[in-house]
Design brief:
The chain is mostly helical and 264 residues long. The protein has one domain (2-259). The protein has helices at residues 2-27, 37-59, 62-72, 85-109, 111-121, 136-153, 157-175, 182-191, 195-201, 206-209, 219-224, 251-256. Helix 1 (2-27) runs parallel beside helix 7 and helix 4 (85-109) packs across helix 7 (157-175). Bound molecules: zinc ion. Zinc ion is lined by residues 104, 108, 117, 121, 201.
Length: 264
């Protein structure tokens, strides 16, 4: 039941959020596109649909099924302690997000992982479609890691569903090209990741790119010294320095990128 309802919720949030932020981006864009938005969207959506089709075959509901399994068998850390369900839910979201922060950091620091993650960073403009522009290799690896984490933690299916839903919406919001009032960004930034924080992470400047790894919460960056705030937002150029030609960033280039020449 939760497996079927969960995938319905995830899919609705994913496509609903994409449409919602796309409309907002048209109404109140952060800045004008420097390359064709239509072409970028075609490539990003081609990658998204391709990934969904393949991963659907390999991992359909695997994370939620793992959560059902560990809950039924009372495995994992959270099933060994007596805490209120709400505390466990909060711990699930915080723990999974922290692990994602570590995983993201490794994607930048380990050359093998960067080969895949650079597909995401090679987008020349950042908008809501960037949130879903990932190489299938990175997504498959992160799915395996998430399954192991759910096993270790003993997360409930509901906890996993809430975490995955929050993840999708936060990722879409922080990648979106939206003009957002400064006061809102400042309040949001205390706990969460606003677009301006994540824009710094997508800078071509490597020193700026290797900061601000958080997806849901900004506190991990703050506590572990990877937070960068002091950057002129108007001067940020999005992308990877070595990939500046849009005609070299089509679907098939992105798919082959991990096995091409290594660049920082
Ligand atoms: Zn990154």
């Amino acid at each position: 039941m939760i497996e079927r309802d969960g995938s319905f919720v995830r899919l609705s949030l994913f496509w609903g959020g994409l449409l919602f932020f796309l409309v907002l981006e048209f109404l109140s864009p952060y800045r004008k596109s420097s390359v064709s938005k239509v072409k970028r969207w075609m490539n990003n959506m081609a990658l998204t649909v391709f990934n969904s089709l393949i991963l659907q075959l390999a991992f359909a509901g695997a994370i939620v099924r793992t959560a059902i399994y560990v809950t039924t068998h009372q495995w994992g850390v959270l099933n060994m302690v007596a805490l209120s369900p709400w505390v466990k839910l909060l711990m699930t979201v915080a723990f999974m997000d922290f692990m994602l922060y570590i995983w993201h950091l490794l994607n930048h620091d380990v050359p093998f992982l960067w080969r895949f993650h650079r597909v995401h960073h090679s987008d020349l403009n950042m908008d809501v479609s960037t949130a879903t522009r990932f190489h299938i290799g990175e997504l498959a690896l992160s799915a395996v890691i998430r399954i192991c984490l759910v096993f270790f933690l003993g997360a409930s299916p509901f906890g996993v569903l809430i975490f995955e839903s929050a993840l999708v919406l936060c990722a879409q919001f922080e990648h979106s090209s939206l003009k957002i009032p400064g006061w809102f960004e400042r309040i949001f930034w205390v706990l969460f990741v606003p677009p301006s924080m994540h824009r710094i992470h997508h800078s071509v400047v490597i020193k700026e790119r290797n900061t601000n790894y958080g997806t849901i919460f900004s506190v991990w960056d703050r506590w572990l010294g990877t937070l960068l705030t002091d950057v002129d937002q108007n001067q940020i150029r999005i992308g990877v320095g070595a990939y500046q030609k849009p005609e070299k960033l089509n679907f098939h280039h992105l798919l082959a990128m991990p096995i091409t020449r290594y660049v920082r």
